[in-house]
Amino acid sequence: MRWIARSTVAVCAVMLLSPTTPATAANPLDLTSGFYVNPNSAPATWARNNPNDSRSAPIQSSIGSKPIARWFGNDANIGSTVANHAGAADGQDKLPVLVAYNIPNRDACGGHSGGGAGSASAYRTWISGFAAGIGTKPAVVIIEPDALAAYGCLTAAQRTEMAGLLRYATEQFKAKAPNTYAYLDAGNAGWGTPSTIAYRLNEAGVANIRGFSVNVSNYYTTSQSITYAGSVNSFLPAAKPFVVDTSRNANGRNSDPGGWCNPAGAKLGVTAQRGGGADMLLWVKTPGVSDGPCGIAPNTPAGTFNPDLAIRLINGT
């Protein structure tokens, strides 16, 4: 693995630090040769299992063969699950993108992806294992989509608990995953005011990690998302790098109030790349995976791959 040779100097420097001093993050983009394509993503698996379906070839070509983040929820063996995924990417000298999605009161506003760890202590155990599973392997992690933006749907006690758990998560990645760029999710251009989100990011420990993510699982254009991120940064004590989810944003967000949930007319955005006005443009949401039983997929539960949704994203219909 080339990242091992590239990081030799950094590792030697870390060894000179005291045992309690966390390693300074190396740039995982520089330690790898591109983004990891998961052969077992939902669209790739569907295409492989349905070779005679006319939708199979375009889904594999346009979606299944592209770098897509893998989402991780409640898993008693999260450390080994994450380690296996990050290890598979490392074996190809590629950079995996992972999403930590298991906080208590998850998806408090939308409700379609509700759930998460059963208690604060269970979450601490889970996220600690997640970070340890990555270890020194290069990775990108998006921490808890929707969590900060959904404070308005929580009680005061729940908000306090969530802020503490998010801060704990940032501390775990800082201490245990030195070659990971971690990003706290900061909602999107249509959800929450920049000053409020900046306050919550600061409270949740964004200073401990690389930065924040925007537009996860949403449809706002890259330009709109960059403008929003810039506004958030203007309210932070120090500006932080950010990433944008471009998986479904080529046609932008429609004006329908319910346009966040399987809307018609959405289209695949640019594939994963470095730069583009941000740290990275990424496919965080898996194209073709339903937002919930709503919009143009009223009978498809959240998290379920629907080939018709995938084809409509390919065609922009």
From TrEMBL:
Positions that bind substrate: W71, W191, N218, W260, K285
Database matches in InterPro entries: Beta_cellobiohydrolase, Beta_cellobiohydrolase_sf, Glyco_hydro_6_CS
Keywords: Carbohydrate metabolism, Cellulose degradation, Disulfide bond, Glycosidase, Hydrolase, Polysaccharide degradation, Signal
Organism per entry: Lentzea albidocapillata
Highest taxon of the lineage: Bacteria
EC number: 3.2.1.-
GO BP of this protein: cellulose catabolic process
Signal peptide coordinates: 1-25
Name assigned to this protein: Glucanase
Presence of the UniProt keyword Transcription in the record: no
Ranges that cross the membrane: none
GO molecular-function term, one example from the UniProt record: hydrolase activity, hydrolyzing O-glycosyl compounds
Family: Belongs to the glycosyl hydrolase family 6.
Pfam families found in the cross-reference section: Glyco_hydro_6 (PF01341)
Broad enzyme group: hydrolase
Lineage: Bacteria, Bacillati, Actinomycetota, Actinomycetes, Pseudonocardiales
Active site: D146, D291
